[in-house]
Design brief:
mainly alpha; 7 helices; two-stranded antiparallel ribbon
Length: 135
């Protein structure tokens, strides 16, 4: 019975609230933030490649933008717009260099879809992070 209570909502085992600021962000809002980030990356890359399409340059922009933004600020532009951020676990103040493997695993996509009971993808579990709501 106790283990069932621990699983009553995503983030409970991590000491996070069930709803509101600091609760685990849902998959839908995380996908929305990712889509916004892809669009921003495309538009930034397009500034440098016009009149041609950016092709893989937009992926490079996305990787750099994600590593730098998450590593320093804890969120990408899309996450900021959607009111979510990446929060480090284990007493760390910043995501820091963990943003590199987290971004690499996000790039593969599959690890982000393998969620646990706390709504954390494989990339978040390996890098000891969780995506939470900021509003």
């Amino acid at each position: 019975m106790a283990s069932q209570q621990e699983q009553s909502f995503p983030g409970r085992r991590l000491g996070l609230p069930e709803t509101g600021v600091g609760s685990v962000a849902g998959l839908g809002v995380r996908i929305g933030a990712f889509a916004i980030d892809l669009l921003v990356s495309f538009l930034i890359a397009l500034l440098f490649t016009r009149p041609e399409l950016p092709r893989n340059w937009s992926l490079l922009v996305w990787v750099v933008m994600t590593v730098v933004a998450v590593g320093i600020f804890g969120f990408t532009p899309g996450q900021a717009i959607c009111g979510i951020r990446v929060a480090p676990l284990g007493g760390r103040a910043l995501v820091g260099l963990w943003a590199v493997p987290r971004t690499a695993l996000t790039f593969v996509i599959v690890p982000t879809l393998l969620n646990d009971a706390d709504g954390r993808g494989l990339h978040d579990r390996l890098c000891r992070t969780v995506v939470i709501r900021t509003r």
